[in-house]
Amino acid sequence: MEIYLYDGSFEGFLTAVFDSYKKQGVIRKENAFVPDMFATTISVQTDLEKADRVWMGLSKKLSADGLHQFFAAFLSEIDVIEDQLLNYARYIFDNQLSIEHDFGNAFVLFVAQTARKVHREKHRMEAFVRFQLTKDGIYFSLVAPDYNVLPLIIRHFKERYADQRWMIYDRVRNYGIYYDLEKVDTIWMEMDKQEGIWDPNENDYQALWQTYYKGANIAGRVNRKLQLQHMPKRYWKYLPELR
């Protein structure tokens, strides 16, 4: 068996799809690969031309929503998602008609269900992100999403907070997205300590927000079960109103 190792990027994955398409191999991230003495490993060098050819081929077979599902499923980072997407791509290219709603096929169903989970996490991030002001005048938010959803929430926050500099940092994957009032860049860094980075007035803002939340909240109408359904407890540590 041949194992194609790629760098973890979406473009790298599409390159691996191109290289392995006609072969009975599997695709794995090189930084998570466990050596197998019975397999032949092939190192895939990310090639934007090859990646574009695969993406353009998918674009001719899938709707805009189908393409978005393909990308969202990739961002799930779940085990063997590469193999699922590779088989999905093969099924797409092997059929003349559109297959993106052929849920009788295991690969189509898997991609649709996975993309739905990722989009659910995306919407939660858009709803639950809370910013804190740093000494540098940057509104900063620390998150730990189940899936790699930062690429999917850029548009929402760029449009909603277009007049301020902000950064959303994924502590699980050690990278963030930073908006400088013009464009959004990807920032890779370690974020172990946060002491001393906040604006001197930030504690007052947090206290004001907590006071507002408590004043607006009607204790007699609190439905904890429903609240947990829409706002899982793992998000609470990032919400100042629930600290």
* DSSP strand tally: 8
Q: Provide mean pLDDT, rounded.
A: 85
Total of domains: 3
Main β-sheet description: 5 strands, mixed
Helix content: 40-55%
Cα-atom Rg, whole angstroms?
21 Å
Uncertain residue ranges: none
Lateral strand order in the biggest sheet: 4-5-6-7-8
- Shape, principal axes of CA atoms: globular
How many helices? The count is 8
SS-based class: alpha/beta
The amount of beta strand, in percent, is 5-15%
- Compressed to H and E, one letter per element, the order equals EHEEHHHHEEHEEEHH
Structure description:
The chain starts with a strand and ends in a 13-residue tail after the last helix. The chain contains eight helices and eight strands. It folds into three domains: 2-119, no CATH class; 129-199, no CATH class; 201-243, no CATH class. The protein has a five-stranded mixed beta sheet, with helices on one face. It has a three-stranded parallel beta sheet with strand order 2-1-3. The radius of gyration is 21 Å and the shape is globular. Helix 1 (10-20) links the parallel strand 1 (2-6) and strand 2. By secondary structure, the protein is an alpha/beta fold.
Could you give a short description of this structure?
The protein is α/β, with parallel strands linked by helices and 243 residues long. It has helices at 10-20, 48-61, 64-75, 81-93, 106-128, 150-160, 202-216, 224-230, and strands spanning 2-6, 26-29, 40-43, 132-133, 139-143, 166-170, 175-179, 184-188.
